[in-house]
Amino acid sequence: MTSERPILQLGHPTLRQVAQPVKSTADAQVQQLIDDLILTVQAASGVGLAAPQVGQSLQLLVVASRPNPRYPHAPVMEPTALINPRLIAHSEDTVKGWEGCLSIPGIRGLVPRYREVEVEYLDPWGAVQRVIWTDFVARIFQHESDHLAGKVFLDRVESTADLMTEQEYQTRVLAEGSGAGS
Question: Architecture of domain 13-176 in CATH?
Fold first, then answer.
């Protein structure tokens, strides 16, 4: 049965561990984790979630962009589970965009990310997939992929002047229509 899982908060040691590769996509626990990640990210109004954020130090993440209260301008896509993802290529250009994190509630940061990424991963059925993502969805992937390496978006913010509270972000940035993030 699919269930919403508690999301670990910054300071929990699992968030700073390098995640281990998934050995078998057919494992019932891996399949359950995928379902739980999708339910959890949707319930939390997120656009992506990595297994370490729910206490499972595995190379598994979900990209699930759709408009919601935290990201009203997010593009719509089917939730996509990526197992053992690898960044194959990326654009030379980077773009700064606002990011938040379900594991770091109340804070947003302006984070530089590659504008375009090419990613290879296993899908839930164990097939190798390759995809190119740009802009907001590329940002989501990079943000979630950082969790697999034991990093959080705060590690990529270039200056503390690039941080603000969620309330200020919602009031000022979204009201101006310039909000982005993952």
Answer: Alpha-Beta Complex (3.90)
